[in-house]
Amino acid sequence: MKPPICNVCQRMNHGAELVQFADYRPLAPGIVGHPHGLAWFCPEHAGAAKALADKPLDEALRLLRAQK
Q1: β-strands 36-41, 17-25: how paired?
Q2: How far apart are CA 6 and CA 35, in angstroms?
Q3: How far apart are CA 6 and CA 58, in angstroms?
Q4: pLDDT tens, 45-60?
Q5: How would residue 68 be classed by pLDDT, with cut points 50, 70 and 90?
Q6: What is the pLDDT of residue 1?
Q7: CA–CA separation, 44 and 57 (whole Å)
Q8: Which positions ≥6 away from 40 have C-beta within 8 Å?
Q9: What pTM did the predictor assign?
Q10: Were 42 and a residue from 13, 46, 52, 61 both cysteine, which residue would form a disulfide, CB within 3.0 to 4.6 Å?
């Protein structure tokens, strides 16, 4: 699992939330890593990220970064 670094502002935040997107693929049992389609967001960006959770992660990140 990746550390809680916001995928928009790149700040580490221990209050960050994981948001699951439409292209989420869980890891197979016994596999260590970070699942595709699951990303960390700081409290400032989590709400906007959740509003885009019906989209694939790459598309959601593009939209979120364009809002900055």
Answers
A1: antiparallel
A2: 16
A3: 14
A4: 999 999 999 999 999 9
A5: low
A6: 86
A7: 18
A8: 2, 3, 4, 5, 6, 7, 13, 16, 17, 18, 19
A9: 0.92
A10: 13
